[in-house]
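Support request, please re-run this one:
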Amino acid sequence: MNKVFDFMAQDHDRLDGIFKEFREVKNNDLKKAKSFFHDFKIGLQKHIVWEEEILFPIFENKTGMYETGPTAVMRMEHRQIKDFLEKIHDRILKGETSKIDELEKGLIEVLTAHNQKEESILYPWIDDSLSETERENVFTQMKNLPPEKYDQCCQ
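Re-run finished. Output below.
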């Protein structure tokens, strides 16, 4: 897999699958629900760091759009996503999984629109504007991302 689009879209699908599993067990098995949500939260935080620290700067440097354009909107949406993650996480820690349906719906709504924008605009643009060597460098940076940048949960 040597395309940013392929890699990131596959990660979107992987994360969606984990969240779906969480939703299926949340009211019946709190231990499993916590495990699924933990994996989802850490995975989504890692995905966001890949974008904000590696992919968005590439787009911004090549287009000159630093505080405007798609990455500005996506950063704002990342803040919304993180807020939903923390609110859901807090409810799960309290064992209040039956009280998070509205939060889940809000998160899904933001994530769905967000992922569609990335997959239709940002990722294809990055793939078209980078050489194969530059894309390999992007994947190396993503692979070598230190866990302390994203592995934050239950501290």
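The chain has one domain: 4-144. Residues 4-144 form a domain with the Four Helix Bundle (Hemerythrin (Met), subunit A) fold (CATH 1.20.120).
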